[in-house]
């Protein structure tokens, strides 16, 4: 006996994910299935009625009352089938809309609670695919499959039950070709779980490549790299196409033959020939033989949705797994008894941090004093940005502590923490909102005068006023800002929020030379009374910092002012010498 395989584990995970994802509307789906079953049974009444009608008409003399009654029952069966199926599909479509709204709201609410650093490790393409494409992928399963699959199961079972009541030989005749279909289907199913898993992964890569390419098309075209950027999409599309073709090509002929043996014409010919023989032997009446032919032709038509349903269920299960994995991302821990900071001094106390099992920071300790600018410098990969993002809890430290106002940031409620800490990163994201709304993101109640003052300080007010609708211009529509301009909007946003602690990750990295000095002067004036932590990639931007912390391989190797560090002739002095040698 062999143990459970990885495929078994994947199937169990998919089944659990489907149950959990569909749970908000599971009751409605069950009700729809009951109605679908009743509709399927009502739909068999016309076929059985036609057989009864044939016997009544062949009687000598014809039984008019029986003919009238059977005709009424046939019409009633058709009406009931339409009513039940319509009600069932209405319920499942309403359930589908409700489920999509629930899942998207749940994902948005959950993503608002996960650590901000999680987003840096997960591409926007995959997130969009999960939030949009994967939720849409559940439509067929919720709105259609439950109802159609129930009818596909109840219809042949009801038909066979009725034929068994008439004559067991008619029931056997109706399913005579099914073993051939079942054998062909079993052959096609070999290794399908693994193949579908690979196809789903390939589809996810293709979707992410499309989103990422479209999102960055303006930038790559501007720099003449459209062909290079398009290569990732072409490769993903080629991999998906090649895999899909290699998988389905051997199955197409078998599938065609399998479909043929259970097609209505073939089943009809078999049952007509067999029924004629049964009538000749006196086993059944002509009406019963007609019932056998009609109901036998219904069975393969009803079975067809089962095969499509299996594929739809697998696709929906894969989507449900991704949705559930997103919902299972551990949220940022919230303190049970939160504390409020007493002041806004920032202390890094023996901070250690590991990412994917690799140590990034090794016992880093330093303080950022209120009213002072502390700059972090060091070579790429030294841990500068990591230290900065640990302060607003993009991640939590592995060991040690970061304190604001004497309180560990992990003991401060996240909403309270973000009222104390503002940050401007290199990659500023503007919402699809007005410039006014983007600047006032942290203070929606801010007045126009306050917004304008923050924008003037960030040297972006004049550029905004030059836009078609000024502060009412929408980012990405009639407000097409450069990287440096978007960064200055981000600076204005942080300044308007008026947080006592400000984190700047090379906030002037994309500023043009003319406005960089003005921005630096504005930041210096507004730093009064604030605790400012600057991550510097260009040393010229932090020569006036009150304290410079030099990092190397996740450790503090030097601290001091620009002059003190140059006099020490250590790491910083060598970095400065190398910086000055680089032509402007």
Automatic annotation (TrEMBL):
Xref: Gene3D superfamilies: ABC transporter type 1, transmembrane domain, P-loop containing nucleotide triphosphate hydrolases
Q: Which residues form the signal peptide?
A: none
Which domain of life does the protein's organism represent? Answer: Bacteria
Q: How does it sit in the membrane?
A: Multi-pass membrane protein
Q: Which UniProt keywords apply?
A: ATP-binding, Membrane, Nucleotide-binding, Transmembrane, Transmembrane helix
| Location within or outside the cell | Cell membrane
Q: Would the keyword tRNA-binding be found if you checked this record's keyword annotation?
A: no
InterPro entries membership = AAA+_ATPase, ABC1_TM_dom, ABC1_TM_sf, ABC_transporter-like_ATP-bd, ABC_transporter-like_CS, P-loop_NTPase, Type_1_exporter
- Extract one GO molecular function annotation from the record: ATP binding
Transmembrane stretches in the record are 29-49, 69-95, 170-188, 203-224, 257-278, 290-311
User: Where do the ABC transmembrane type-1 domain residues begin and end?
Assistant: 31-296
Domain ABC transporter residues, every copy = 346-578
PANTHER family (alphabetical): ATP-BINDING CASSETTE SUB-FAMILY B (PTHR24221), ATP-BINDING CASSETTE SUB-FAMILY B MEMBER 6 (PTHR24221:SF654)
Q: What is the name attached to this protein's record?
A: ABC transporter ATP-binding protein
Query: Which taxonomic lineage is given here?
Result: Bacteria, Bacillati, Actinomycetota, Actinomycetes, Streptosporangiales
